[in-house]
Amino acid sequence: HPQQTMSAIMNKILPILVVALFSLVLVFESKAKEITIPINLEYELLDALLVQSSFTDPNQTAQLLYEADGCLELRLSEPHFSGGANVVNLVSKIFIHLGTPLGENCLMPYQWNGSIEISQVPQLNSSNWDLTFQTVDTKLFSADGQEIDSLDVVFKRLLPVVNEHMREFAIKLDSPVEDLRTFILPMFTPEARSEAEQLLNSIRPGAITANETTLMVNVHADAVEVAATEADEGVETLSEEQMENFLDLWETWDSLLVFLITMLSEQPLSPSEKQQLIDLLLDTRYQFVSQINDPTIQKDFVRDQFLNGWELLSGIFKNQMLRRPPEKGLGYLSFITAVDALMVLDELGPAFGIEVSRNGLVRLAKILGGESIELHYSPDINKALQQLFQAYPEQQEPSPESEQPPATDPDTSAGYMLKIIESLFFPSAYASNRPSFSEIKSWQAPKNNFEDYLNRIRDLLEFSATSLVIRRQLPANLSDIYRTIIPAIAWQESCFKQFVVKDAKLTYLLSYNNSSVGIMQVNERVWRGIYDTQRLRWDIRYNASAGCEIADLYLQKYALGKYGSEILSQTDTLAQLVYAMYNGGPSQYDKFLKRSKTKKLYDSDRLFAQKHEWVKNESWENVGKCF
């Protein structure tokens, strides 16, 4: 019979379909991993949000009742959250004044001061992500801190008013969650876009826990493993296009880092926080510069720098979040949550397809600064960075050459031609009103008879070093060492040259990797935003002053700051340590001391030590070896 036949067929197929469906579920579950992303709400932030929304009366109070010129008054003040065992407690001072209004009088007034403790269970609405608080217990305490065991009729009538007011307090977490979605998506590789969308669609509220310092709202999601691809054998060499993309990504990351440091600098920072930011920026940039010309650089280089940088930045950002207005604090919360999510996903390993992208970094900046924020890798001076590094080379007195009138009257034909030559062959120097062509040419190193040139260079370096000694008030025992370090660095880095002739044109001295310039070989990428790039190139005095400030940073903040004053007795080691950091960044502090201890110095260490010895002994005749 046809119906019996169809029924028999379905009876055979149905178990197969069930098994297949169950198998698909098992496959998904085997590839999917539930992750937990925490949204951490410190109680200080909750205090600020509560004051902003519910304690809006003068002096951050909540006037719940005020009638008959204060004859009837109920007021809360100084709210403070605490927590533990998954319950949050709100403690607030409470003032009660009750009487019987009669005309302009208040008969039989009753006044009481104390505090109220409201125990609440936090709840998260899964549809709109509103975090609310349900009162489960209320306690009253007298002014001397004694709990009131039995409540009289007055308290029983007023407590519902207090609880109703507190029931209206809610924190909207939809913005942090949405920012989380928009940030995560660009961080997945194009091959993992489907898996990324599955993860974002699976975001859902999780458990809420409370400890002594933080209320933690957990967000759950299902991370689906990306299909495995065949691993490349050997070291991959980046193509020219891939290298350009890598440079663009790193420059975006560096621009984001500057943006974050600038934001953090808007509020007071502790000395240790300032030093941490200096360490991070220098280490990040020196590490990049050391590999900038390596075509085998790993594609995860920027990702690793970003994640390592966040380990340091997260603590500072959380401190700053609590110092900001509540509405900005929530913006910081979105930012912190987004990066914490990336950290969680990164721990899952490469099988989940996470990478740091330019769009993701830009999105991260917009979470903090708004949609108008753009990350531009610009050589322009950043005042926040200059203040952080205390970099002010422009405070030097103007040079005698710059005060002299031009050798040729610009109104004459000869002067006009000179201006044309300057604009053609020195466009950057001419356009930005840098030293004149004649001054630049006056610092061209001669091929022979360089004694006069060397004497001028030594005077210039001595002036720059002395200026810094006076400005920074270096003590005598330190300034003596410092004055030998500066010319030794210039000797090692450039053989006292700011300018060279290249392709029959006079130009600034540029390092082999096209990143460091001038007599002190100041690295333009490392010190971007801190020093004026064009002046580093074309103004020898500015370059010398910048190099002096950098050497002083490594001398005082690192060598003395980390090692202690006992290193002052080891003048040669101190000088070599400062140069090692000048050449390779703060990470060279430990590395050089290890090399020095094991007698496995680099060639650059030994060459600098030799030049430092020549400076101390005034063996200037050896300069001819590099001229």
Q: Whole-Å distance between the termini? A: 107 Å
* Discrete helix count: 22
**Which class of secondary structure composition applies to the elements?**
alpha+beta
Strand order of the largest sheet: 2-3-4-5-6-7
Which residues sit in consecutive blocks of at least 5 with pLDDT less than 50? 16-30, 397-432
Strand content: 15-25%
- What's the β-strand tally? 13
| Overall body shape | elongated
Main sheet properties? 6 strands, antiparallel
Helix content: 40-55%
- If you average the pLDDT, what whole number results? 85
Q: What's the Cα radius of gyration? A: 34 Å
Describe the structure.
By secondary structure, this protein is of the alpha+beta class. It has helices at 2-31, 43-54, 153-167, 174-184, 193-201, 240-264, 271-289, 301-321, 326-346, 358-369, 383-389, 400-403, 413-425, 427-431, 437-442, 451-472, 476-494, 533-538, 540-563, 571-584, 588-598, 603-616, and strands at residues 32-42, 61-67, 72-84, 87-102, 105-124, 130-142, 170-172, 204-210, 214-224, 499-502, 505-508, 516-517, 522-523. A six-stranded antiparallel β-sheet has the order 2-3-4-5-6-7. Strands 1-9-8 form a three-stranded antiparallel β-sheet. The longest helix is centred in the first third of the chain and has 30 residues, at 2-31.
